[in-house]
Amino acid sequence: MSPELLKLGPITLYWYGFLITLGALAAAYLSTIEARRRGLDPDHVWNALIPVLLFGLVGARLYHVLSSPPGGIGFDYYREHPIDIIAFWNGGLRGLGIYGAVLGGIFGLWVYCRYAKLSFPQWLDIAAPGLLLGQAIGRWGNFFNQELYGFPTTLPWGIPIDAQHRLPIFADLAPETRFHPTFAYESLLNLLACLALLYIGRRFVNWLKVGDIALIYFIFYPLIRFTVEFQRPDAWTIGGLPTAQWIAVLTSATAAIILIIRHRVQLPERFGGGTRAAE
After folding, report:
1. 180 or 81: which carries more pLDDT confidence?
2. Residue 17: which of 89, 82, 107, 79 has the closest Cα?
3. Residue boundaries of the structural domains of the chain
4. pTM for the model
């Protein structure tokens, strides 16, 4: 497993960056299908993609830089080597955090919606299934970087990890040891969640309000992340619990509460009230 996809003279293309880019394009394409289905201009998707990717990249990098993973590179390292924060030429796009990417991408979409005078909750709904698809594809970049793996396993789908990529707690294990492919678990669950959002958006079109699909994303994905974190021996923890699980619990619970409330109390239109049929 080599992280390098292609070398063109002094330029090296990495699987990680390629798969993230492929995931972003797949997400955008699915979003155009969703926009067209709702009778909206799909060109807005491609126009919004630039600010979404730029702010998403900044957010993803900041989340990684501020983290403190055990035995890994985090805030303590970057405090002493600040130039490495922007040194994407050194190993491609390694060192990104999905929570930061999602938050930054949402901000980028909000900026575009303000500029184009579009309904932000509506376009967030359009983007949500594609976001899960993009996450499902991008996660396979971790396979080539030999990262985001779990504990040792004897299951047939366990993957080998080279000695130089093993966490210190696994350094003394036999070379033939296999590990849980945590990235693959998350990828599969993201794909299933994507299909679920597409189904819900069509099956319950007369019940859903603007912004509901986005809220359901913020229930589904945090639950996925909470689950896979049990196979993250390299997790950044706070109070003995992985930080990603703290975020997952708070995000999922908040989204669920908002979803319940907004279907019991009619919200003003500027906060996303109204049904799909009203669009």
Report:
1. 180
2. 89
3. 4-278
4. 0.86
